[in-house]
Amino acid sequence: MKTEKKIHNSPDHYQNYKLMEIALLHGVAYLTFNNPPINVLDAVLISELKDFAEKVASDRSVKVIVFQSSNPEFFIAHGDMNFVTDPASFISLADSEGDPLLNPMQQLHERLGSLPQVTIAKLSGFARGGGNELAMALDMRFAVSGKTWLAQPEVLMGIIPGGGGTQYLSRLAGRSRALEVILGAELLDSATAEKYGIINRAIPEEEIDAFVSTLAARMASLLPGVIDAAKKAVNAAFHSTNGISEESAMLGRLFGEPAAAARMIASMEKGAQTVEGERHLEQILNSI
């Protein structure tokens, strides 16, 4: 797997990071971790991610964010173990704007998970503990087949996942498998992670770059408001007692946009809603 090349320079406010690089291309921000030797999620990286999240949340030019690593052996190894031996250094990272009931790593992951952009983890190598939790907090995860391993080994250290892992795993894999992963503390290969629903897909190494970049570009080209509406409607299924009404509200909002009607008309002019056109509907829609 290759990391995306910096094709376009980032604005100045995305260029001053020590442990990550930001490349912007056609509405997609590629965030590449570079914290040698193993990309530990330490105090500096947490602070930089918080700063990035604050800035990108209001950046309407960015529609999709891909999180990746410059090191194919480690996405993010795990949270800094020094946080356990020096709790004060961890608490000092608390976000004054975050939920005071959450610890700093939970605050960060929830901030990343609530970004208005589509967030994608492109995984290769090891992602344990806080590294896996960060990936699970994002909207989607794609991993290199046979070269990605995920784990929550905290119980072997006398603690439990505390960066959101108990919650994210339960939503993705279900209660029984979440308990298996947490209490069993075994390293999951990409095939098992895909089977359990922890990642979206395991993709061959020679195909993952093209797959993720194509998917990200397609999403970034969607009409304004579509990503926001889709995320709010899907999120409502997990955080609302009546998510179906949120779906209706989001659809109604988009129905009122002239651009949506124009897209429908253009698609029918190219053959949509005909026998032959329906055999290739995605091609028609992508060509508009």
Topology:
Layout: E1 20-25, E2 28-33, H1 43-56, E3 64-69, E4 74-76, H2 82-85, H3 87-91, H4 104-113, E5 118-128, H5 130-137, E6 140-151, H6 165-173, H7 175-184, E7 188-189, H8 190-196, E8 201-203, H9 205-220, H10 226-239, H11 243-255, H12 258-269, H13 275-278, H14 281-287
Could you provide a short overview of the structure?
This protein is an alpha/beta fold. The protein is 46% helix and 17% strand.
Task: From the structure above, extract its key features.
alpha/beta, 2 domains, 14 helices, eight-stranded mixed sheet, 8 strands
Task: Give a written overview of the molecule.
The protein is of the alpha/beta class. It has 2 domains: 12-220, 2-enoyl-CoA Hydratase, Chain A, domain 1 (Alpha-Beta Complex); 226-287, no CATH class. It is built from 14 helices and 8 strands. The protein has helices at residues 43-56, 82-85, 87-91, 104-113, 130-137, 165-173, 175-184, 190-196, 205-220, 226-239, 243-255, 258-269, 275-278, 281-287; strands spanning 20-25, 28-33, 64-69, 74-76, 118-128, 140-151, 188-189, 201-203. Strands 1, 2, 3, 4, 5, 6, 7 and 8 form an 8-stranded mixed beta sheet that branches. A hairpin with a 2-residue loop joins β1 (20-25) and β2 (28-33). α1 (43-56) packs parallel to α4 (104-113), α5 crosses α6 (165-173) and α6 packs across α7 (175-184).
